[in-house]
Specification:
The chain is an alpha+beta fold and about 150 residues long. About 30% of the residues lie in helices and about 20% in strands. It has two domains: about 100 residues; about 30 residues.
Length: about 150
């Protein structure tokens, strides 16, 4: 089994991440399994220097790889960017910076990749009372964003 392409990175401000997501050069590293839609991990490098050190990684979901949902209109990539905008407008910081842009497989969403601790999930987090306000905020966001 090969080495993971996922890299840790220093914290980045949302405005800087959005700028890089909108203007950076994209290099597809591979498909992310376990997704119902076509989902790819990409390196995002500043400028047009193909040899530039990647500044960040992102999840790229081209529109043409979306599987339609019976209860939502087409255009999941636009909904994901709108969810980021809503979260930012509310000041809730629930959705990583996400933009819509052209990529190697056409127009789609591009979202800042966030490392996850897969040992932590709803069933472990719900036992921690100090997280309940954040979980309630997440539930409220889900209702407002019509994401359920």
């Amino acid at each position: 089994m090969g080495e993971s392409p996922i890299r840790a990175r220093a914290p980045i401000a949302d405005a800087e991440a959005v700028e890089l997501l909108l203007t950076g050069e994209l290099r597809v590293l591979g498909r992310l399994p376990w997704s119902s839609n076509a989902t790819f991990l990409v390196d995002v490098s500043p400028g047009e220097d193909p040899g530039a050190e990647p500044a960040l990684q992102a999840v790229y979901k081209p529109a043409r790889g979306e599987r339609p949902l019976h209860d939502f209109p087409p255009g999941l990539h636009r909904r994901e960017a709108a969810a980021y905008e809503l979260s930012a407008a509310l000041g809730w910081d629930l959705v990583p910076p996400t933009v819509v842009r052209d990529g190697p497989l056409g127009t789609g969403s591009l979202q800042l990749f966030v490392l996850a601790d897969f040992e932590q999930h709803y069933f472990t987090l719900r036992e921690r009372a100090e997280l309940h306000p954040a979980l309630r905020r997440l539930c409220a966001f889900d209702v407002v964003a019509n994401a359920t």
